[in-house]
Amino acid sequence: MDEARLYLGLEDEDWKELAALEGQLIVTIAIWDESLIYADQDVPGAEQDFVDFDLYLADHTLLELYGVSLYENLDSPPMKGVKHIEGVLRLLASRSGMLTEIAPDEAGLPVLLLVGQGMAPLWAAPTGWAIDRWDELPWQSH
């Protein structure tokens, strides 16, 4: 498999690739141990408001998201605390989560609307992302 291209900004043609993911069911979410945002910093987990995670989508697309801030409401500050954020993402994955919409923010970066059954909508704003394919889920690999 070729290495996925890391996106840090969007061109018009990049939107087409992202828009094709709208409406996809989330099979699972793999949360990274630490966000690349904090690679050279010593920030306690309770104060962190960025996470990195992978969305395994039903069409076998792997959407790798880096430096993601998550919002329950776009008018409020991002969620804070790694354990809290991980809990919300695990709940989303267990509640038939879906990537319902992708729209640009003021800077032209994508904001993903994630919805799970019986949950309030969740907005995810990555600072970087890559799109790849998956053949095995994380727990199925060697």
Kindly describe this structure.
This protein is an alpha+beta fold. It has one domain (11-135). It is 15% helix and 36% strand. It is built from two helices and eight strands; from the N terminus they run E-H-E-E-E-H-E-E-E-E. It has helices at residues 12-19, 82-94, and strands spanning 6-7, 24-31, 51-57, 61-71, 98-104, 110-115, 122-125, 128-133. Strands 2-3-4-7-6-5 form a six-stranded antiparallel barrel. The longest helix is centred in the middle third of the chain and has 13 residues, at 82-94. The radius of gyration is 14 Å and the shape is globular. The chain starts with 5 loop residues before the first strand and ends in a 9-residue tail after the last strand.
In total, the number of domains comes to 1
For the largest beta-sheet, the strand count, sense and barrel status come to: 6 strands, antiparallel, barrel
Average pLDDT level: 91
User: How many angstroms separate the termini?
Assistant: 17 Å
What value does the Rg take, in angstroms?
14 Å
Order of helices and strands: EHEEEHEEEE
Shape: globular
Q: Structural class, judged by helices and strands?
A: alpha+beta
Report the total helices.
2
Which regions have little confidence, pLDDT < 50, spanning 5+ residues?
A: none
Question: Could you give the count of β-strands?
Answer: 8
Across the major sheet, the strand order is 2-3-4-7-6-5
Short overview:
With 142 residues, the protein is α+β, with helices and mostly antiparallel strands. 15% of the residues lie in helices and 36% in strands.
